[in-house]
Amino acid sequence: MAVLQLHQVKKSYGSGHKQVDALKETDFLADRGELIAIIGPSGSGKSTFLTIVGGLLSPTSGNVVINGQNLSALNEKARSQIRLKEIGFVLQASNLVPFLSVANQLKLLDKVKKGNMSYAERNQLYDDLDISDLLLKYPSDLSGGQRQRVAIAKALYSNPSIILADEPTASLDSERAYEVMELLRKVTKQKKTTTIVVTHDTRLVDYCDKVYNMTDGVLTEIKTQASVNY
Ligand SMILES: Nc1ncnc2c1ncn2[C@@H]1O[C@H](COP(=O)(O)OP(=O)(O)OP(=O)(O)O)[C@@H](O)[C@H]1O
Ligand SMILES: [Mg+2]
Predict the structure, then answer these.
(1) Could you say which ligand is closest to the alpha carbon of residue 53?
(2) Residue 223 has pLDDT above 80, yes or no
(3) Ligand 1 pocket test, candidate residues 15, 24, 39, 47, most atoms within 8 A of CB
(4) pLDDT per residue as tens digits for the range 67-79
(5) How far is CA 187 from CA 45, 72, 86, 169, in A?
(6) Inside any domain, residue 218
(7) Residue 213's domain spans which residues?
(8) End-to-end distance of the chain based on CA atoms, in angstroms?
(9) Which of ligand 1's atoms lies nearest the C-alpha of 44?
(10) Strand ranges across the sheet with 69-70
(11) Is residue 143 one of the residues assigned to a domain?
């Protein structure tokens, strides 16, 4: 069974002559262990797609099914439980809590959810993202790229089955951007997660199993590569 299914999902903002059809009718499937890229111009509907997939935004019509559960059939409380348990978000605006140190951003998750990374795994994650020296700092003391790496650590720490990342490498230099994509690939393959990355950077698609293009709210698959397991 696919981890993630979209059936005839559409999203329009506004109404009448101001209506914007941000996402045209879309069918989409994703499986465990797949790293998927979505590329496309600004305003084409990429963030709309990702926030609908993650249950943060409701579609105008159609269904989103995560691990067999139809999100539209659930109330907001049940949807937020699924988000907490299954989904790791790296949003375009970093979702760090301003008054918590880097270390406490992750520790906060231990209070609301079981099954997070072990101590050793967490330290490895800090190393992989090169944020071990930043643990006592607050978000306002970090550079954009450092904040972005902390946001990625936070998303991965809770061992989500689905990782949704909106421009996770936008504030990073090329070398760090490649490292982050390598990390996302490693996590996707080792933990058999389903990972969707929105990016402007077409160089990053080489790390991905599938690549989709979004143009004017229409999602089209442009590359499928046999999954490499390592
Ligand atoms: N809350 C909203 N209300 C009205 N229109 C919106 C809203 N959010 C997005 N839109 C419109 O929907 C379309 C798609 O926006 P979206 O944010 O999904 O694009 P995007 O591909 O993520 O762009 P970018 O690469 O700049 O982040 C755009 O025309 C945008 O102006
Ligand atoms: Mg966007």
Answers:
(1) 1
(2) no
(3) 47
(4) 999 998 999 999 9
(5) 26, 29, 15, 16
(6) yes
(7) 4-224
(8) 23
(9) 21
(10) 20-30, 4-13, 61-66, 69-70
(11) yes
In a domain, 190, yes or no: yes
The CATH number of the domain holding residue 129 is 3.40.50.300
Q: Is residue 230 part of a domain?
A: no
Tell me: the pLDDT tens digits for 151-201? 999 999 999 999 999 999 988 899 999 999 999 999 999 999 999 999 988
CA of 114 to the centre of ligand 2 (A): 31
Number of domains the chain contains: 1
Q: Is the CB of 193 under 6 A from ligand 1?
A: no
How large is the average pLDDT for residues 113-133? 95
CA distance 40 to 30: 19
Centroid of ligand 1 to alpha carbon of 190 (angstroms): 33
For residue 48, give the ligand 1 atom closest to its CA.
Answer: 18
pTM metric for this prediction: 0.93
